[in-house]
Amino acid sequence: MPIRLAAAVLLGLESLGILALAGWQTVALVGGDTDSVVSSLALIVLTVVGAAIVGAFGVATARDVSAGRSGGIVTQLLILSVAIGAVTGEWASPAIAVLIAVPAVVGLVLLALAVRAAAPRRRDDD
């Protein structure tokens, strides 16, 4: 399997993970575990839109479109920033940070390799 397809699969899995987060948010809304219904609905909509965008990056990466790889790299960097946030603060959790960071690092490496594989080969005419 080419590297770009492995990167696309990982982006697809991350998209499903984001959809699962939207499901969790929906359960919290229905269960009354939110302070503002309007804010909760807006957050759920934004989460679903984010999942769709990450899924689109996965499809574009599978089709060998440069914008998909670029968007996927930005996504991995954003996920890494969330992992760094999980290590810091009042409720810091290094274990959760590792669980968030490992797939992002793997995705970043796969996407970087996919970019390298997609680059045209230079001929040295020396």
Description of the molecule:
Helix 1 runs antiparallel to helix 2 (37-62). The chain has 126 residues and is an all-alpha fold. The radius of gyration is 17 Å and the shape is elongated. The mean pLDDT is 93. The longest helix is centred in the N-terminal third of the chain and has 28 residues, at 3-30. The protein has helices at residues 3-30, 37-62, 66-87, 94-118.
Give the topology, please.
Blueprint: H1 3-30, H2 37-62, H3 66-87, H4 94-118
Helix pairs in contact: 1-2, 1-4, 2-3, 3-4
Shape: elongated
* Class derived from helix and strand content: mainly alpha
DSSP summary: helix tally: 4
Strand content: under 5%
The total strand number stands at: 0
End-to-end Cα distance, whole Å, is 35 Å
Q: Look at the structure and give the mean pLDDT.
A: 93
Largest sheet: none
Summarize the structure.
With 126 residues, this protein is mainly alpha-helical. The protein has four helices and no strands. The radius of gyration is 17 Å and the shape is elongated.
Q: Tags for this entry?
A:
126 residues; mainly alpha; 4 helices; 80% helix; elongated
